[in-house]
Amino acid sequence: MQSARRLRAGTYGFALALALVSGRANSQTMNEGDPATRTAARDLAGQGAEAFDQRQYQVALDLFQRAAALVRAPTIALMQARCLKQLGRWVEAIDAYEVAQHLPIGDGTNPAFQSAIASAADEERALRTRLPRLNVHIEGLGTKEVEVLLDERKLPAALVGVDMPVDPGAHQVEARSAGRETVKRDVVLREGAREILNIALASATPPTVAPTAGSAVTNRAPPAEPARHSHGSSSRTLSWVALGVGSASVATGVLMSALALSKRSELDDVCRPGCPPSYRDDISRYRTYRTLSYATIGFGVATVATGVGFLIFGEKSDTSQSALRFFPGGATFERVF
Questions:
Q1: Do the bridges between strand 194-200 and strand 133-139 make them parallel or antiparallel, or are there none, so unpaired?
Q2: How far is CA 102 from CA 82, 198, 228, 269, 280, in A?
Q3: For residue 170, what are the contacts with CB-CB under 8 A and spacing of at least 6?
Q4: How many domains does the chain have?
Q5: 295-324 per-position pLDDT tens digit
Q6: Do residues 92 and 163 both lie within one domain?
Q7: CA 285 to CA 264: how far, in whole Å?
Q8: Residue 59 confidence (pLDDT) above 80
Q9: Does a structural domain hold residue 214?
Q10: What letter does residue 211 receive in the DSSP assignment?
Q11: pLDDT in tens, 202-229
Q12: Which tens digit of pLDDT belongs to each residue from 243-285?
C-alpha cells in the first residue's frame, strides 16, 4: 500500500516536472524565470503531489500555490483545482479548472499540458452538475436597499435575488437594512440542490401615526354607565329574612316552653315536699327546656323587631338612587335621595 502511494506520488511529480522541463522553450509565454526558479517550482510541485497522494489536501494546495507563483502551467493549476475540490471549496475549484484550460501554452506541443487541459475540462463539467445553487430573496426591498452577507462575506448587489453557485454544506446568511431588524438564517446545501431563501426584514420600531388636521386625539375613556342599585329592594329583602328567622326562633321558644311546662307539671306531682333522687334527670331536662325557651323567644322577638324596622324605614328610602361614575384619573360614588 505504501509503495503504491509512493508510485502515484512519483507519477504526479514526474508529470509536473516533465511539463515544466518541456515548457522551458516557451519560458516567455509561460512566465517562467531563470533555471533556479524553475527548479524550485518543480520541487514544490513534487512535494505537493506527494502531499495530495497522502490526502493532506491543505498542505498540497499551499505547495501548488507556491509553485504557481513561480511558474504558470496547466498541470499546476489542475492540481490546485483538485485540492480545492477535495477541501469542499467547489466554487474556487471550478475557477481553478477554468484557469488550467485557458493558460497560454506556447505552441501547444507539450503532451502533459494538453492532458492537463483536457482533464480540467472534463472535471469541471462533472463538478458543475453537482454544485449547489442558492437564491437569497429579500421581500419588499430592492437590492440596493439591503446588505446581504454570506458566511460573513458581503455579497455584491447583483447576486441578491438570483441563483448563485455555493459550496455544499452549512452556511449562514445575514440580511440588514437601515431602520430594520437584522435577520440571520442558517441553511444547509446538498450536492446539486437549488435553495430559495426568502427573508423579510421587519421595521425596527413601529410606525407612529400623526394626527391629521381637524381631527382630535383624546385619551379619555367614555363615561361608564352609572351603576344603579335599589336600596328599597335590599331593605325589603333583609326585612323578610329577619322576620322569617325571628318567627322560627319564636316558634322554637314556644315549643321549648311547652316542654318545660309539661315537665314541671310532672315534677309538681311527685315533689311533695321534696323530689326523689330518681327524678334528677327530669329536673335537669326541665331546666334545659326552660333556658332554651327563654333564649329562643328572646332572640326571635329581637329578630322580628329588626325585620319590622327594615320594612318600615326601607319603604321611606325607596326613592333614593346611587350611581358610580368614572372619569379620567378617578371615580366618584353619588347617591341622590
A1: parallel
A2: 16, 38, 96, 144, 134
A3: 186, 187, 188
A4: 3
A5: 888 887 787 777 677 667 665 555 445 454
A6: no
A7: 10
A8: yes
A9: no
A10: P
A11: 887 665 655 555 554 445 555 555 545 4
A12: 787 788 778 878 878 887 887 777 777 776 667 776 778 778 7
Please state, in angstroms and rounded to a whole number, the distance separating the CA atoms of residues 117 and 66: 20
Most confident of 1-5, 131-135, 159-163, 205-209: 131-135
Alpha-carbon torsion (255, 256, 259, 260), positive or negative: negative
Q: What own/partner pairs with CB < 8 Å and gap ≥ 24 does 302-306 have?
A: 302/246, 303/242, 303/243, 303/245, 303/246, 303/249, 304/242, 304/243, 304/246, 304/247, 304/250, 305/246, 306/242, 306/246
Q: Are residues 126 and 162 in the same domain?
A: no
The DSSP code for 215 is: -
Cis peptide before 273 (omega within 30 of 0): yes
Domain carrying residue 301: 231-336
Apex 85 CA angle, 83 and 90, nearest 5: 135
Q: Is 247 exposed, middle or buried (0-12, 13-18, 19+ CB in 10 A)?
A: middle
pLDDT score at 3: 42
Residue whose C-alpha is closest to residue 45's, from 5, 96, 10, 93 = 10
Given phi > 0 = left and psi -120 to 50 = alpha, else beta, which region is 72? beta
Q: What is the pTM of this model?
A: 0.54
Residue 69 C-alpha cell reads as 507563483
Sign of CA dihedral 231, 237, 242, 243: positive
CB-based contact 54:76 (threshold 8 Å) = no
User: Which amino acid makes up residue 256?
Assistant: M
